[in-house]
User: Fold this.
Amino acid sequence: MDDEKCANELLEEARAYFPLLFKKVASYRVYAPMALLIELPDRKVFLFDSLNQTTTRLPDDDNIMTKEQTGRVFGILLRRVMARKGFTQIGLAEATGLRQCQICNYTYGRSVPSYYAFDKIVRALGCSAEDLRYVK
Assistant:
């Protein structure tokens, strides 16, 4: 399926789940498989995650994200990669040697992994660091 068709289908799905929020859209594009970046006329940007039928407001400037914003976005991306690769929190904990409660905190954006933990997660998931990094 081409990107434009996929983007249109994802936008229709986003509007089905969040009709008031996405009534008027300025622009949109596929961000990752089953994920859509949606910009509203007021310049607010949202990430619609079709896997979990959720939407998250993204920071206005990705160069000055707070630690909380970084954690929230990292958690979204981590959950997506885990789902795509078939990992549970327990499975990822076993594969990385990290505690399951740490993985849980990462997936829900309550904390951000250290570089060492991040590297272990990337290696265990068999993904690139870019898959877990927010780029607008």
